[in-house]
Design brief:
CATH architecture of the largest domain: Up-down Bundle
Number of domains: 2
CATH class of the largest domain: Mainly Alpha
Helix content: 40-55%
Radius of gyration: 22 Å
Structural class: alpha/beta
Strand order of the largest sheet: 2-1-4-5-6-7
Order of helices and strands: EEEHEEEEEHHHHEHHEEHHEHEHE
Largest sheet: 6 strands, antiparallel
Length: 358
């Protein structure tokens, strides 16, 4: 079982200098809002993904008013690995595994998988397509380094093509030969990414339906559909046929960067047709689907990070989720504001729970 045994935090979010050790399958972290519960989970995510779950700018995780940051964690599978992330005073970030620095942070992704579930994750259902693409990319990148490489390369070429289109707006001459090179490159890479996403979404739909039905006891089937412009034509054809639109708008309007996941309930958009309870069950279905896809393909269970979720679930769903989770061969972190409520919720499994009060 993949598990983290120890973590030390220096100038990370709420913590100036603190160390925690974990010795049970389930770790309950309780305390008042603002006490640092979520920061511990975010630090674990940082060590698994080389970045925060919540903050897009690395420097924002540094404790306010201080300089530099360091996280150190000890992970165990069949051996012990020490992971270290450092952000120095000059904002340079370093990431090390067993004291050896990565030259490319992307080489670390997928080695120590984790699944994070937080209250704001309902944005997956109600928010923009960008969040759903990020959700797909985060999962598939943990399964395939090739996919991660393709995503990084696609983003780089897309940026170059958009920069060229903006440059044309200011110039009288236009270099169509360079644009054609970018178009062919996006076509080749986009086709690979598109196929990865098709295969992944088939798995995700099946797993999500399974866990949605388990948690909600609903009879209806939810539908997850992968939506892509590449279903109608090749990316090269789309870009070639719509070049005037791209020039006019100064950006690339077609490609896998426009993909989306469509969620439906009884033929209606899920965010419109579903009740609050159905949304919660569906969100957990998505996340547990992610958990099991990774588990099956990596042959090890991701670490589960559950941030303040039991306050959002009714008693029936909470017990179903707990009964299910404790049977998994996975380390689970749970945050909550009240320790007595956690002890009551985990009454039957208290010997498997480590309680940390902040």
């Amino acid at each position: 079982m993949l598990r983290i045994e120890k973590i030390s935090l220096y100038h990370f979010r709420n913590y100036t200098n603190q160390e925690f050790s974990f010795d049970k399958q389930i770790v309950s972290i309780t305390g008042k809002n603002g006490s640092g519960k979520t920061s511990i989970l975010d630090a674990i995510h940082f060590l698994c993904f080389t970045k925060s779950y919540f903050l897009h700018i690395d420097s924002l995780v540094i404790t306010n008013g201080l300089q530099g940051m360091r996280i150190n964690g000890e992970f165990r599978t069949d051996k012990l690995d020490t992971l270290t992330c450092i952000i120095r005073d000059n904002s340079k970030k370093e990431f090390l595994k067993n004291s050896v620095a990565y030259t490319q942070f992307s080489r670390h992704i997928g080695q120590f998988p984790c699944v994070f579930i937080a209250p704001d994750d309902t944005e997956l259902i109600t928010g923009s397509s960008e969040g759903r693409r990020k959700f797909m990319d985060t999962i598939i990148s943990q399964l395939s380094i090739d996919y991660l490489d393709q995503i990084i390369l696609y983003a780089k070429i897309l940026q170059q093509r958009n920069a060229l289109l903006k440059q044309w707006h200011l110039q009288a001459t236009q270099d169509y030969s360079l644009l054609q090179i970018y178009t062919k490159q996006l076509h080749t890479i986009g086709h690979v990414i598109h196929q990865y996403r098709i295969d992944f979404c088939k798995q995700l739909a099946a797993k999500t339906n399974e866990f949605y039905t388990y948690l909600s006891e609903e009879k209806e089937q939810v539908i997850i559909q992968y939506q892509s412009q590449l279903e109608s034509a090749s990316l090269e054809d789309l870009l070639t046929q719509n070049i005037e639109k791209d020039i006019r708008t100064q950006r690339t309007n077609y490609g896998i960067h426009k993909d989306d996941l469509i969620f439906e309930l009884n033929g209606m958009p899920f965010k419109q047709a579903a009740s609050q309870g159905q949304r919660k069950s569906f969100l957990f279905g998505l996340k547990l689907g992610q958990f099991f896809i990774i588990q099956e393909q990596k042959n090890k269970s991701p670490i589960l990070l559950l941030d303040d979720i039991f306050e959002k679930l009714d008693e029936s769903r909470s017990h179903k989720l707990i009964d299910f989770l404790v049977k998994q061969n996975a380390q689970i972190f749970i945050t909550h504001t009240h320790i007595e409520q956690v002890k009551k919720t985990f009454k039957e499994y208290q010997d498997q729970v480590q309680f940390i009060e902040l």
